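anyone seen this seq b4? input:
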Amino acid sequence: MDLVEWLGSRGGIAHRDAAKAAGFGTAAVRECAASGRVTIVRRWWVAVPGAPAVLRAAAEAGGRITCASLARWRGWWMPDDVDQRLHLSLTPGARAPSSTGGVRHWTRPIAPPPALALVEAPENALAHIASCLPREAALIVWESAIRVERLDIAALRQVTWTSIAARECAQSVNGLSDSGLETIAVRRLLPWGLPIRQQIVLAGHPVDLLIAERLVVQLDGFEFHSTPAQRARDAAHDAELRLRGYTVLRFTYAQVVHDWPAVERTIARAVAAGAHRAA
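predicted toks r here
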C-alpha cells in the first residue's frame, strides 16, 4: 500500500505524524506532493485531491468539525432549516485563517478529542449543538445522535456540561425516538398534558406514538416507508389496529415538517372526539 492508498483508507486526509507512524516519512510525502498525487495542507496535513472539503477546511483552520457540520458528517438527523455553514471547533487562543469562514466555536473540549483527528468527539459536538441551535432542533439532533452513536442516556446525564442549554438537553432526551419526526411531534404535543408513549408494540409491531390509551400516530419518514411493500405492511398494520379498537392517524414527512399546524389540528380533533380514550 502506498501513501495515496493509505490516505484513501483514512478518509483522504491525515496528519503527517500519523503518516510517519504508518511508515510514510518526509521523503515519501514530498515525492507524492511533487507529482501532484497529494497536497500539503497547512504544513501538517496530507490530503489526496478528492479529500472531503469539510475535512480540508478543518485542517486549514487548525480545528475540528463540530456542531451541525459534525452531525451531518456522522449522519445524525436534523431539520431542513438548520444552516449549512461550516462549524469548526478551535482551542481558545488558537489562530485560524479568516478565509475558512463559517461558525467558530472557541471552547475547551469536555471530552478529549481523538488524537490527530479533524472531527470532534460526540460529547463536544452535542455541547455546541445545544448552545448553537434552537431548542427543538437541538433536541432532535441529540435524539438522533443517541440512536446513531448508541450513546447511553445515564452516561450523558453524568457528563459535566458547561452550559445550561446542554444540561437541559441531557435531561430532556429519552433515546426513544426512532426518527426526528417523532421528536418534533412529541415536543410539540407534550404541553397538552396527555400521556405519550413511543415505540410501543401493538398488534405485533411498534407504533411511533400512542397518545393515552387508544390514539395511534404514525409518522412516515423517507427511509422506512418509501417502497410499495413497506406501504402495504403499514396499511395492513393500520387495519389490524383499527380492528382492535385503536384510532390510527398517519402523517408524512412533508406534513410534519412543513405543515405542522394541520397535523396538530387533526390530532386535536381526534382528542376532542375522545379517540384517545378506551371505550
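Residues 228-243 form the longest helix (16 residues). The chain has three domains: 3-51, 59-172, 180-272. kinda curious what u guys think
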